[in-house]
Amino acid sequence: MIIENLLLDFGAKRISYAKGNQLFREGETALNYYQVASGEVKMNNYNLDGKEFIQGIFREGQSFGEPPLFADVKYPANAEAIIDSEVLQLHKSQFLELLASHPDVHLKMTQTLAKRLFYKAIMVSEISSQEPEHRILRILDYLKKHVHRIDGKFEFKVDLTRQQIADLTGLRVETVIRATKALEKKGELKIRSRKVYR
Amino acid sequence: MIIENLLLDFGAKRISYAKGNQLFREGETALNYYQVASGEVKMNNYNLDGKEFIQGIFREGQSFGEPPLFADVKYPANAEAIIDSEVLQLHKSQFLELLASHPDVHLKMTQTLAKRLFYKAIMVSEISSQEPEHRILRILDYLKKHVHRIDGKFEFKVDLTRQQIADLTGLRVETVIRATKALEKKGELKIRSRKVYR
DNA sequence: GCTCTTTTATGATCTCGGTCATATTTCTTT
DNA sequence: AAAGAAATATGACCGAGATCATAAAAGAGC
């Protein structure tokens, strides 16, 4: 996260996206730095038969889609507003200038990328070689510990639908529903009025 | 990649690891920056029943295991020499000093992380939602285009065993063997004396 | 309150890739 | 050249999770 005034100083614009609208698409060239001012944005892929995979969900203060600004590659996924959202948008060239003139911000950016890489490393290994229940617990624990920074049993209310959990783990809704129930029975999580607590 | 003399100036050491030896393990705290001087190092995970997943393979000039130096996390995977290797090793504090005093090197580092993130984003989506043949082609195309920078049909000789392809894609050897054969029949790749060309 | 949509739920069936067993070919080492 | 190890190959079978169908509960909008 880069503080708003600094972004605005460098010419960032505040732009609104209605629920369901796309900010950019897989395969496009990256032109801007994006940071959520309010709302919720997801990055996702669709495979050939329409199945969605969610790369990540970004909330207030979080930036997304920066890697292609550094590496010379196209966007590996789409970005879409999950709910009505406002986004701070800064053109690539100004963004790079900002980093060059603010080493501390650059370092923070590097740390952000490093954290994301850590998350992806975990997920890719999980998805490739673990059974559904394990995968689900892993992503919940990751969100609990690294995103929401919550401690204590069942203190983390999972603000995701079963479908979203499925899309984050590469499973199917039905499998997630059955697996979460099995996990509740095992005492690994709680379900109160359909919401999952971990 | 950071040029060798610069690393040595900051106190890096050249260390040899025999084939099969581990440089660090999943869950350990990151203490050093690593860069391959010669040989080949892989980062991997093992799941509960011993199945391996290869996060990446690093060759001469490539660095690995940096994210935990930036983000405050433990290693998400092990590092192991695939063949006898020499590695340049620089202590975390000196490494961060190096970056602070050489903004160009820092930017290059950020670009490296960004590229790796790009690769992981592709793989995690592939693994989660695509069939074996698709996954295999994707990783081969990634290696061809982004690692070896080769152009032209069947010009890329894949220097991986079927088992390694399996461990990189989260598949099983038998599946990779069958899938590569099917892909050859479809004209997507060639197999000459058991080596895969793409 | 009523309607429409979204989300959760559950059973039945199917299928693809995993598993297991075994063989053959190639590479290494002595 | 022989022996051993590693990599590739192939068939038979199985099972976990996907798929399909259908329903019920909860939430959103009017």
Summarize the structure.
The first copy, chain A, has 198 residues and is of the alpha+beta class. Chain A is built from seven helices and nine strands.
Q: Which descriptors would you attach to this protein?
A:
homodimer; about 200 residues; 3-stranded antiparallel sheet; 9 strands
Annotate the secondary structure layout.
The structure is a homodimer of 198-residue chains.
Chain A: H1 4-9, E1 13-17, E2 22-24, E3 32-46, E4 52-59, E5 63-64, H2 67-70, E6 78-91, H3 92-101, H4 103-129, H5 132-147, E7 157-158, H6 162-169, H7 173-185, E8 190-192, E9 195-197
Antiparallel strand pairs in A: 1-6, 2-6, 3-4, 3-5, 3-6, 7-9, 8-9
Helix pairs in contact in A: 3-4, 4-5, 5-6, 6-7
The structure holds a DNA duplex (30 and 30 nucleotides).
Question: What would you say this structure looks like, in words?
Answer:
The structure is a homodimer of 198-residue chains. Chain A has 198 residues and is α+β, with helices and mostly antiparallel strands. In chain A, 42% of the residues lie in helices and 28% in strands. The first copy, chain A, has helices at 4-9, 67-70, 92-101, 103-129, 132-147, 162-169, 173-185; strands at 13-17, 22-24, 32-46, 52-59, 63-64, 78-91, 157-158, 190-192, 195-197. In chain A, the strands form two sheets. In chain A, strands 1, 2, 3, 4, 5 and 6 form a six-stranded antiparallel β-sheet that branches. A three-stranded antiparallel β-sheet of chain A has the order 7-9-8, with helices on one face. In chain A, a hairpin with a 2-residue loop joins strand 8 (190-192) and strand 9. Chain A is globular. The model of chain A has no long low-confidence stretch (mean pLDDT 92). At the A-B interface, helix 2 and helix 4 of A face helix 2 and helix 4 of B. Chain A binds a DNA duplex (30 and 30 nucleotides) through helix 7.
